[in-house]
Design goal:
Layout: E1 18-19, E2 25-31, E3 36-41, E4 46-50, H1 54-62, H2 66-73, E5 80-84
């Protein structure tokens, strides 16, 4: 088992996905210890964003427009990797 939290290792128990109300995003997970936010988009694509501070994750969860918050505060602001392609 890979215990190096600095590397992309997939979902951890700390980052279980929580469904959200959004036309752009289906669910969000966050691992505070690793500062990794996992986002599942409406297309089914799953991305991990690294080096995301807790306040940015909380800002997303509190936002009335999660898509707008992602576009302005997360996408192209933090290192990201696609974990899974879309499709249902």
């Amino acid at each position: 088992m890979n215990t190096d939290r600095g590397k992309l290792s997939g979902m951890t128990p700390e980052s279980e996905l929580v469904p959200v109300e959004s036309s752009m995003i289906q669910a969000v997970g966050y691992d505070a210890a690793a500062q990794v936010m996992t986002v599942q988009f409406g297309s089914g694509k799953l991305y991990e964003y690294r080096e995301v501070p807790p306040d940015v994750h909380q800002g997303l969860m509190d936002s009335g427009s999660k898509g707008q918050y992602m576009n302005g505060n997360v996408i192209d602001c933090y290192p990201a990797s696609q974990v899974r392609r879309g499709g249902r």
